[in-house]
């Protein structure tokens, strides 16, 4: 993809994530990777940061202007209140385009309509189906996602399957721009000694310990298996949680919970030297953990969903299992008898990162989108 030449000044505000350079999840990674590349292209980028997460509050980092906005600090209101305040500030500023992440921020597009600010929103996954949003939360996210399609000028979906779902469910077209990956060819086996692990002697799960990532399903199938390998579970939740605690209280000498692994070299090594990586994420589109697995050369065992099939090119770069404990057990036993096939998947994993998962191409696509939005309102 050729670089777009920036002929006139462009000011873009980004909000809805935790901030910059804070990286906890997919949205935060998108803000960092996109923001830095836009600055390099001459764009003035402003990122709204969740004030409580930043003990130090520099006004600018790596050329990105930072605004630290407050929030109502409760489990359900933190993100929404932070986004509301950020949106109000952005609407009253001189930015040319406002870019929002998270479909939960759908209603705030009304503010940008009132203030006539061009907007785009990345709606991410099917939040209303996630088990953690049962009841009122689920209804809110479905309502908010529908409003996003009414109030924002452009909807961004991160996969073709998500594009299809928004077209069918909300009768709305969207621009498909995936997340990017940072592939790496090398890792350091010495780093595994921290957890008393050996290369290819463990299966790996990476992700938040929430129901829709299905760590409980995978763990249940693993415990029923006869494998002598370990199951390493990387991740946690940033709050006290019954589901996560129940998992972490399971005692088996083959199961290792590492908690968060913040050192990128350690995380890369855990991916790269796993026998296979289990991906149980169910309701997202392009998943950052899956991109890491491809980029770090993993043999991937994935829950059979339309999103995972899209990312793994219908099995070219992974093995699928159904959402049943026995299926997980059977998959473990089967792949342990296929070491050559697992090695072949590891060797070809990085070739699964097509151009749409290249961060430079992702940034270029967003820049074209933002310039279109600016010109449409000028």
From TrEMBL:
Domain Glycosyl transferase family: 193-350
Residue ranges of every copy of the Glycosyltransferase subfamily 4-like N-terminal domain listed in the record: 24-181
InterPro entries reported for this sequence: Glyco_trans_1 (IPR001296), Glyco_trans_4-like_N (IPR028098)
Stretches of the chain forming a coiled coil according to its record: none
GO-annotated molecular function: glycosyltransferase activity
A Pfam family the protein falls into: Glycos_transf_1
Protein name, UniProt field: Glycosyltransferase family 1 protein
Native source species: Arthrospiribacter ruber
